[in-house]
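Question (not urgent): is this output format expected?
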Amino acid sequence: MTPAATNLIAHSLSLAAADADPSVEAGREALGHWNRYPWYDSATDGVRRVEIPEPSNWDPPSWGSSYRFDFLDGVLQWGAWCLLALVLGLGIYYLVRTYLDREELGGTTAKRDRSKPDSTDADRIEALPFPMRTENLDLLEETRNLGRQGHFSRAIICLYSYQLIHLDRQQRIRLTKGKTNRQYLREVGPGGPLGRILERTMIAFEDVFFGNHTIDRVRFESCWSRLDEFQALAQQGAG
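Got this back:
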């Protein structure tokens, strides 16, 4: 008998012996009945190889660093633009507010200066668009005296100064240091009767004061003779 046959016979006898053993049979039935032991082979009543699946490389979803940085970068950019818009808006608001407040203050001051009763003739003379030196604050009386004495060039300077001051009293113009004769003429209206009287005196004054010319009695009288008309027209527009 060959060794292989001998081993086969021995194995068969062991199986038969195992089958004859009640405890072995009970164990076989328990393992085969439940079918929950993957390592048990019921055909051979032995152990079989269990194939364990390899773990997968699946990773749970996560917020990657690049995504987080992109998200934060977008938020910061959006916040920066909002902050810039807010700063610009506030800057424009305060500029407009400052301009409007200045205009309102200027208008209020102008109205107050034009109507305040404590404005003296000395203040008005100081605000004339040319230096005026006289000890007599009654410019109308000074004009009359100079005309009687034949000083017509000096008299026309006093007459024009009186006309500007009188127009300021009547609120037809606003005497302000730095304004020009042409500006005052525009305030009165050069095309109207009052403006034409003022313009005649103004031209004679400029010929004397700026052109160093002399004027005669006739030219002086052409301005002086319209004093009553000038005062009446100035009074009509007062208010």
